[in-house]
Amino acid sequence: MISERDVKHIAELADIGISGEELDEFTVQFNDILDYFDILDQVEAEATKETDLYNVFREDVVTPSLPQEEVLCNAGEKEDGFFRAPRVM
Amino acid sequence: MGRLHFSAPDPYHAFITRIPDAEYGEGRLSGEAVAVKDNISTRGIPTTCGSRILEGYIPPYDAHVVELLKADGAAIVGKTNMDEFGMGTTTENSAFGPTLNPADTGRVPGGSSGGSAAAVASGMVRMALGTDTGGSIRCPSAFCGIVGMKPTYGRISRYGLVAYANSLEQIGPMARNVSDISLLMEILTAHDPRDSTSINCPYCHKPDPDIHGLKIGVPEEYFGEGVDARVASTVWEAISLLERRGAEIITCRMPSMTYALAAYYVTCTSEASSNLARFDGVRYGPPAEPKKQWHDSFQERRREGFGKEVRRRIMLGTFALSSGYYGKYYAKAQTARQNVRNDFHRLFCEVDVLAGPTMPTIAFLLGEKSDPLSMYLSDILTVPANLAGVPAISVPCGTVDGMPAGLQIMGRWCGDEQVIDVAYAYEQGVSA
Amino acid sequence: MSPASLHKTAGKIPDPDIPSEEDEVIIGLEVHCQLDTRTKLFCGCSTDYRDDDPNTHVCPICMGLPGSLPRVNKKAVEYALKVAKALNCRVLEESEFSRKNYFYPDLDKGFQITQYDKPLAVEGVLEIEGDEGDKKVRITRVHMEEDPGRLVHKGGTDRPKYTLVDYNRAGIPLIEMVTEPDLRSPKEARRFLNKLRATLEYLAVFDSEKEGSLRVDANISIQPKGWFEKHGKGLEERGRVEIKNISSYKGVEKALTFEITRQKNLIRRKQKLESTTRHFVETRGITTSSRSKEMEQDYRYFPEPDLKPLRVCEWCDHIELPELPDARRARFMDQYGCSPNHARTLTGDLRLAVFYEKVADVDNQLAATWVADTLLGELNYRDISIVDMSPSHFIELLELLREDVITDKSGVEVLRFILDQLKEGCTCEAPSACVTRLNLAKAGDEGLDAVINEVIGEQPQAVEDYRCGRKEALNFLVGQVMRKTRGRVDPGDVNRRLREMLPKGGT
Hints:
The structure holds three protein chains of three kinds. Chain A is an alpha+beta fold. Chain A is built from three helices and three strands. Chain A has helices at 4-13, 20-37, 68-72, and strands at 57-58, 78-79, 82-86. Chain A has a two-stranded antiparallel ribbon with strand order 2-3. Chain B is α/β, with parallel strands linked by helices. Chain B has a single domain (2-259, 330-431), classed as Amidase signature (AS) enzymes (Alpha-Beta Complex), CATH 3.90.1300. Helices cover 34% and strands 17% of the residues of chain B. Chain B is built from twelve helices and 13 strands. Chain B has an eleven-stranded mixed β-sheet, sandwiched between helices. Chain B has a two-stranded antiparallel sheet with strand order 1-3. In chain B, α4 runs antiparallel to α12 (416-431), α5 crosses α12 and α6 crosses α9. Chain B starts with a strand and ends with a helix. By secondary structure, chain C is of the alpha+beta class. Chain C has three domains: 22-297, no CATH class; 325-438, no CATH class; 445-501, Arc Repressor Mutant, subunit A (Orthogonal Bundle), CATH 1.10.10. Chain C is 40% helix and 18% strand. Chain C has helices at residues 3-10, 74-86, 186-202, 227-231, 249-268, 313-317, 325-335, 340-347, 350-359, 364-382, 391-402, 408-424, 431-438, 445-458, 460-467, 471-485, 491-501, and strands at residues 23-34, 72-73, 90-91, 98-101, 111-114, 121-130, 133-146, 150-154, 162-166, 173-179, 214-224, 241-246, 277-281, 286-289, 302-303. At the A-B interface, α1, α2 and β3 of A face α6, α7, α8, α9 and α10 of B. β1 (57-58) of chain A pairs parallel with β2 (72-73) of chain C, so a sheet runs across the interface.
């Protein structure tokens, strides 16, 4: 059973904005969904474990980088070859 | 070699972006109009994933599959509509409006590759690419009455596919017949070392309709409670046809189905919560508000740019991975997933392929499914193949109330050739 | 302490369960070094970005464009395994990459690909010179991860603040080495870092001269002596402070020293210390409280689904390590007869060791003394790297010294002259030419005798004092001769000759 406060906390942890209305709606929906997920509590591990792919490597050889203009071409805000972002402090 | 004039009307809203005069070259697809789902990167062509947060984004590179299509002469005529970031079963979650089902415009085409399915079903294009994370190729194929295939995980490179759930998703072909599916498989399975999860197993096969002696398993769970009785009986008829063509039908059980859907949704939302963290507006997409502080700006961008379903899934995934809950959700989901793999493995020791309905119902009415959980539950028959990474195809097998129903064939890992053969056998059997 | 009180405490053994006056410092380090590969960890962009414009060493993968996928650099893994082996670690049978999820503009995917549950290697050890003799510092784990981009903070005075981002550094391979809290002083921490740096350079996997190639997080708390050892963790009211992102070796020592003072003051005032994160301000030599909520971060680690696991034990078994600092130190003592101190100094830096071996044949001991005791100091003073010093010039200098052509003092003068020229970027004059030009060659005996006679003539009082048995007078006279010869004579020679030439006293 998770509360509105829990849902608000998750939204903060995920750095995702939700409106007050959505908070109510999501809380109800999450409880339904998480109740459904509870079925996983019964899962027990079985013996078999398949051998998957491993050690997939690339050689240390330089390949061309994108030209600076292409790197920046989709950016909304840029300055002197840098991306501009909102202040972090 | 030439330019294709592509001006067919789009009454179903299959496309987000159209290229009216696409270039084409020489090759097996020379001059063919191919539509590409809008979560597959196309150089110079906007790629939105059905989301406002990528509005205006133009990739500076082509996905591996797009390179392959072009190398074989195809004309990329447009990017098709989809549920935002692949999250949905109806294409109603697109930020750019829903796609309509050509068989009945009051109904959904299925999702998330609804645009590609409608483009093919309506005859606008001969072939399209979709992506399948939990049924997103097979569902719209079944709902629209076309053929759609999810290959073995790793057989088609994901390089260039905007990630939603990396360990589950695959790009796959959609067309009106199995031969075209097979042709696309030949073209798209060329190995790509840029995808570290890809396997080097190119498909090189002509569909063979001879299924004498083939063992087809039918899991009880695929004909359980939640499946519409008329869909069930239509699919049984299709399976009976296969029996008349020489296959042996064996009923079987898949106990892991009990928690397959939960395992799927925990896994895909967890991976999605991480994959979608990069959309901050700094490098692409509409920029974040520069006057605010970083976190406030970032939060606002995500609230404005992501639709409700996307935000819901990001939050679910964040929760499933969070400290204190990782063991209960994510770790358990991986164990469940291994059990699903084991079930398939065990079954494929007894049978060659599995058969059942693709979807538990026919296409819903637009706006019918508003509750998320009930929407998720409709994926129950398609997610096991994604969890296990095995190949699965949906082939149209009749109608219910005038709406198409799909027969799903699943095969063993790297058994795509056999899956296509069975689908081909059915298709040939029907036309015979 | 009075003898009486000394006597009182002599027989008393402090009870470690009771926080006593005797505290000890508990320090652990997390060291991040950039691996010196040609390309980044997950893409083929060149790592040689330092002199180039921003965002010119970037591709879809390292800028995290939607749809891009990482590919593991084999060389980076090889380098990391070499480090793990040199640190005597146990390599895990299967290790994997994980995602560390948080949101920051320098992290273009919204997560960092690192290693969490299954690092590359664990349970290693590095032996260092401790405060009380040699000590083994335990290495908890060694793992690989990618560097984030670089932020430049702008505005604030004339315009609203904002941040500029350059992704050239994003994706550079890092190796992270974490120690157990085994260090007991800032000096030990510095010695550990020096030994670690030297080891990584000997392995040729790291270049310490590259700016920003090393970053250290240090954690420190002050505990009652013996408490930590006994309980495996500290007293709650003493807290534990983590100082993040220190970017120089000296900085680590300074930051820790400052922290000890700060914490001791709080303890003395009987205040509870919070477990917090602090930031080291290099320019002021202090630590400040960090505004970021680092401690509360939930990184939601999970295995990276776009990469396959590593099974590299067998590969590690076949890796051959080059000669490491300790082995080289032993060899220097054995092969060149170096003293333990000289051997330690000379092998403490790879370039220094290599230089020494190039010049040692002139005269092992002479070379050791001059490289370790003189050259090193003069280089550090001028902030010049030893790679800029010409070995052949140094050999020439050593030969002049060995042949007694010049005094030690003159030798230093020549060396300083050469290094000053180096610093200014002029072409260097050869030592012998320098000696000739500056007339530094040792004066012959006739020359010396002439000067001594001059001084005897000028200082009758001192001569008389000497004759009466006052030994200080001799030193005075030696000084006078040295002044006149401007150091071109050996003081030992002057002393000897003066005694030969001065009239002897009766007593």
